[in-house]
Amino acid sequence: YLAILSPTLGILTDHVAETAADRYCHLASVLLGVPALAGAFASFVPQPGAVAAGGVLAAAAAEAAASRNLVRVWASPAATIARAVESSPRFYRTRYIHGMDLLNARRVQEAEVHFRTSLSLCPKFTNSHFGLTQALVNQRKVAEAIESMRAGTENDPDNFFGFLNLGMMLHQTSRHAEAVQSLDRAMELNPSDTDVRGALAAARKALALSGGRSGGGSSGYGGGSP
Question: Which label site among 62, 92, 95, 101 has the fewest CB atoms less than 10 Å from its CB?
Answer without folding.
Answer: 62
